[in-house]
Records
---
Amino acid sequence: MNPHIRRTSDLAEFEKTIGFSFKNKDLLTNALVHRSYHNEHRGFTLPSNEKLEFLGDSVLSLITSLHLYTQYPEYQEGDYTDMKASIVNTFQLYEAAKKINLGSYLYLSKGEQDNNGRDNTSILADAFEAVIGVIYIEFGFDAAYSFVKKFLFEDTLDKIVADKLYLPAKNILQEHYQDKFKKLPAYKVLEESGPEHNKMYEVGVYDDDKLIATGSGKSKKQAEEQAASNALQKLGI
């Protein structure tokens, strides 16, 4: 047996967790291979999971769009865009990956493992998309949909929609001020730095003349959104 291949019991345990039994075990294994693994295991024949991640990302996009369209018909296209961004992002995919203990099954280099790679947000999020990709290949769209619905949407998407957490921070802060104070917060550029082609902006958000919070970004819009997000945290919203 190739020493690099996970024990059958390991894969069986993972299959039980995700609810699918693969005929093609190499396909499932491939979803678990981080590119760093090849740096120390030149003879390992399976490629990294990057192409499967690419496929899974596309499948996930369609699943999410279809789910939003069918389950939340009262909303508009712009709402769907914000909702989709709030559920299909690195943090939410990372949280979903933790539900299935995905980090325990990954093929990582020793260096990546020592660098806490099994709990790395980006690595886990990418691997989760790769798993969606292999489920789609072996079992089809409906199976991939069920997997995403169970581990990504369940208990999360409904809350995001009900509590309007999909709204940009600026919108949430604006609604808060309109409802509570019958006025709007104001934004002011505090500093611009860097060359013209790569500027950084620092923006403050104000309650009249009182500074609530600041934010920075590569555009005024990005800096304002960060400032609003920081303001929401300070206000406990």
---
Amino acid sequence: MYYLLSSVIGYLLGSVPTAYLLLKRKGINILTEGTGNVGAMNSFDITSSKVTGLMVFFIDAIKGLLSVYIPLLFFPFGFCYPAISLLCAVLSHCYNPWIKFKGGRGLATSLGGTLLIAPFIPAVWITTWIIVYLIKRNILLGNIFANFIALIVILSFPQTAFNYSFPKADSISSLMFFSTSLLIIIFIRHIDPMMEQLTQFNFIKKRIK
């Protein structure tokens, strides 16, 4: 029963389409503007407003934080309940049932939740992203590399990730399942924009030749 309730809590919180609702108030349909991604970056690109972009980011992060905090508050003390809730929140954020299963890429929501229960994940992710961005100055490339490196580091150092789980994960295997599932969802949401950038890059190379 607790697993089901945790899943429902996370799914409902994650399904709040923050960017869609905020931009709709401005008369903008984010689903048909820019990249069509329902997240902070596209919100900023469309509106040219840092305030709007940051507002979307923080609200989406709060969705992840609440999806972890509420199960911890009401259900028996343990890692699995908030972890399942966060996974469901990220899933419904990325494939939102209220807007034809379109959505964001899950980064802000994942960050908000993992900061509470698995801070090792965002620590590795953010460090990698900063390094890649400083070298390449490409946000999407930073996202993809950070995701990939975070997955490798977590799988290579499972004990460290386990030691920095709060509350302590039931087992290393349960933490690995949670971590890999979360990062795989985020990676899948980056496949389309990654392919688009590759297509644009190949087109530019052909034009130069």
---
Amino acid sequence: MSYLQKYADKYKAVLYVVFRVLVGGVFMIHGAQKLFGWLGGQKVPELMSLMGAAGVIEFFGGLLVLLGLFTRLAALVGGVEMLVAFFMVHFPNGWNPVANKGEAALLYFAAFLVLFVYGNQKWNVEQSLLGKETF
């Protein structure tokens, strides 16, 4: 077994928590930009629009993932949103995700697949509140 494999095995729980927190936190920032105009974003004028709904999903879904609360459910909803975003907004501008600016949507989709499969893992609010992972 290689040194890298031993290191990865030893710290995989911690590394997964870092992954979950980073994905959730950055996704939440995207939502905060849309909902509140924070962090260099522009507030969506109409909350009952597709962009408003995206902001709600991103902010609250990101918060849930970050906290480790209903992570699988939040990842499922976020992943569906990212597929919709890619095919509605980016794909009409061409198939290449770098050229059509859809690479973030595809990367989030991939991250949400991982989160959906692995769930909360360690250090999560759901375990503290409910004693188990419910979704």
---
Amino acid sequence: MKSKLKKFFLIFLFVILFLTIAAYFFLDYAINNYLAYSPIRPDRSINLELTPSQLNLIYKEFNITVEDSITLNGWFVFSGSVKSKGTIFLLHGIGSNKTAMLDNAKLLSLAGFNCVLYDSRANGESEGLNCTFGFYEKKDFSSFIDSVSVLFPGSEPYGALGHSLGAAIVIQTMKNEKELNVG
């Protein structure tokens, strides 16, 4: 009887040891490969079914490539008026995309403003692996402002409206971007 109990105890210890080692490797892998990057690698939400044309907005798709060779996808939504009052850049939050700002674009277009909506890096249809919480995104925003001034002459003055991380990017960009009007 003692021999069976001893054998059972050894098997039990082996199973516990095996499960402990397996749990260690699983947690080590998860921490080093997923949890460490979860704040900077947002889920890419893409709603390809929703476009400005579905809200009866006239728009042009345009992409820019920023200094670190990442392509960012954007839309220039034209004003609903004959003469626009300016252009408003609409920046979405982390884990979102440009379609989240379409309702704002509709209201602003009806009020006489052009709008620029784009997917920030690592979000939506834009390239990039990591969100940098403004470090590169503020440079990306400045690149969009520069591109709009070349591609759509006469679209000034420029303003911006951001949601969540988009608002943080607007604030970080305001310091160095002289084209952006703050009211």
